[in-house]
Amino acid sequence: MKQHLKKFVALSLLSTVSAHLYAQELSQKDLQLFGNTQLTKLHKKASQSQIEQMNSSLLKETANSMKGGAYDVKERFKSYECYLNPQILAQELKTSGYSQFENPTGIYFAAGDSALLWVGPLNGADVSLVVQEWGPQEKKEAKGRRGERNGHYKLKEGLNVFEIKEGGNSYIRYYADEVPADHFRNNKKKSKGQTAFAPVQVHVVGGRVNGVFNAAKDDNKRWNQLLDNAVSPVMDVVGEQTQLIYSVASLKREAYGKGIELVALYDSLIGHQHQIMGLKKYNRIPKNHMLGRVIWNGFMHADGLGAAFHDNTMVDLANVDKLRINSWGVAHEFGHVNQVRPNMKWVGTTEVTNNIFSVWSQYYYNEHAPKLEREVLRDYDGLKVGGRITAYMESAFVHEQPWLTQAGNDRWDRERPRDWGGDHFVKLVPFWQLQLYFAVAGKDNQWYNPDFYGDIYIQAIDDTVTKDKEDSYYQLAFIKRACDVAKLDLTDFFAQSRMLHPIDLWVDDYTCAQMTIKPADIDAVKQYASKYPKPTTPVLHYLTANSVEQYRKQLPLSGETGKGYTLCKGEGAKKVVDGNINATIKGDYLLVDNSAWKNAVAFETYANDKLVKVAFVGAGSNDLASTVVHLPDGYTTVKAVGFDGTRLEVID
Ligand SMILES: [Zn+2]
């Protein structure tokens, strides 16, 4: 899921092919056989013999089709809306590009086809026809030149006749550099200075009707008809916030009869992102769509055109049931587009902050199977359910590794010749804990804020960016904003996560950079946040989806020392007893019965006063019945921890 750091070269570098009059000039005689200038109907008096004598073979074909009643005017004559130029939108939101292929016409052209377009009043607008091949034939020629192999034909008012150089689906490119009056969804109020850009009417003659599925107007019957009759290898699909260009074969196989549901799910996934970005709360969701398209090389990625997914992934991505169970990849790639840069994408976070979106969507649809808590991954003691979080807790709380360099399953060697780095998913854990605390554990509580991130992101979007700021500025600004938005002093949490921790290292990312945070910087942030009260829990850093109810309902810890666990003697690798998976762990451990240690949020293992192991409640368990608590050599005590910081001795 590598992010391609390709800029907006896709369309801007294209040499514009001016629409030139085709060799075959349109004769007035031909045109007079039509009943209007738009050429949408025949003249009442047009006879079959007159049609047979027409000069233009394209017009003759059209006229014959009209005469026979087979001409699909509805599919060919449409009005197209103006969208804010996606490059300008990207600057405003600090994201990468939303769709550069708005306004699909539903007409598929083959190379060499004649095209005739009647265009209504433009009022000076710059409008083009864009033809883009998205099908498998794109594979050979377009490798490494994604999205650049399209035809771009400038349109004028009235008739435009030209030859299509290269085939593909077609789009009416109609973008404004100023914010159109109808730019914001859910905000019909026209702001001062906003210009109304009237829709442009276009009649596309030539090419073949492939159709467009518009979830706002169409139903699943129409969806099936479109898939059954498609002439292009791909279908243009438009939702409220999503635009998909996926292969017809995959959509037919995975989503037949479910077009509405599929688009609704993508709209919902992108809706979560807009909520986290604050665009929903502040009525700043743009009319522009985010584009997801099929590719025929690679796996999945994000680039200047949007999100891209290999056709092979459609077995999951075009399947509503499967996508609900695992939306991570889709949210991750759209999430790359929506990363607010540089404010929420500083060094070391390119593969992290986009997963704030993924981890939330994944939880939203599967509350009982949260990814980080349930995934079986290697931690410091072997394979374990929730190994990503146990690795995080040990890296941060026990070994005090600075955030951005915390070790875990995907990277144990923090220092490499090129850079210092850590496990991208380990780094995600504190972001996840904040969302859990405010959006989930907060319910019915004073600190509830489902828009915690939205409030932070909107400030990040609106913050003026100057080149002199170092990466540490953005990390510290995020911490301060989190405190401001929560109106809480969260610095203990950030100190525990080692986000607010001294560091002076050359940090890993697509582009590495120095991350320097000095003790004085930390003092300044602590001073800044000291105007706010501390959160109700001193152990926010132990919060997981497993313990969210303990925090939410503020449930007191209880348990009887010496009871409620099994001591397991490690002799090499052992199978976790209650999980029906092949997880193995090394060394001695306690298998704690979670029902005997009610409302524990974590278990700490100490060697005298030193914390040596941490297990969040349910670590190593598929069903939350138990917790695997490690007992490394030299340990002295194990403590159960409650949401309020209460600690009880577990073993005698
Ligand atoms: Zn990625």
Question: What does this entry look like structurally?
Answer:
With 652 residues, the protein is α+β, with helices and mostly antiparallel strands. It is built from 22 helices and 30 strands. The strands form eight sheets. Strands 1, 3, 4, 6, 7, 9 and 11 form a seven-stranded mixed sheet that branches. Strand 20 (503-507) and strand 21 form a beta hairpin. Helix 19 (471-486) packs parallel to helix 21 (519-529). The longest helix has 18 residues, at 259-276. It is elongated. The relative contact order is 0.08. Residues 5-24, 141-149 and 577-582 have low confidence and may be disordered. Zinc ion is lined by residues 1, 3, 332, 336, 351.
Listed once per kind, the bound small molecules are: zinc ion
Taking the alpha carbons of the first and last residues, their distance comes to: 49 Å
Query: If you average the pLDDT, what whole number results?
Result: 92
Helix content: 25-40%
